[in-house]
Amino acid sequence: MGTLPVIDAATIENLRALSPDDNGEFLREIVGIFLSDTPLRIKELEDSLAAGDVPKFTRAAHSIKGSAANLGATALGATAQSLEAESKQKPLTEMPPLLDALKAEYARAQAELEQLAK
């Protein structure tokens, strides 16, 4: 996953272009939503993993994949996509390493998005 950019600059520019005269307020708002929502989805992944709830786990991974794509968090999105696909084919007991990778990618995306939203 390391070859993917943490944040796709073109996606960020496209988001800024949606509200060019707001001094970055729109971008800050959607980054804020992403940064407050994604930890909740990660908690859902952890809880559903512990409970063995495959549908909930898969939904949470799918949700992260979509929100990451909206903000250009390509490495995070790719990791979430892998989690979603793997959870449909393998037992959840095999997911912890990929879940750890997702958490690491989220931390990287969070750091870059916080800088971009300043």
Key features of this structure:
118 residues; 5 helices; Four Helix Bundle (Hemerythrin (Met), subunit A); mainly alpha; elongated
What's the arrangement of secondary structure elements?
Layout: H1 9-18, H2 25-51, H3 54-71, H4 74-89, H5 96-116
Helix pairs in contact: 2-3, 2-5, 3-4, 4-5
Describe the structure.
It is elongated, with a radius of gyration of 15 Å. Helix 2 (25-51) packs antiparallel against helix 3. The model has no long low-confidence stretch (mean pLDDT 95). The protein is built from 5 helices and no strands. It has 118 residues and is mostly helical. The chain has one domain: Up-down Bundle (Four Helix Bundle (Hemerythrin (Met), subunit A)).
The sequence of SSEs as H and E is: HHHHH
What's the structural domain tally? 1
Radius of gyration: 15 Å
Can you count the helices? 5
Query: What is the CATH-assigned architecture?
Result: Up-down Bundle
Oligomer: single chain
- Parts with pLDDT < 50 across at least 5 consecutive residues: none
Overall 3D form: elongated
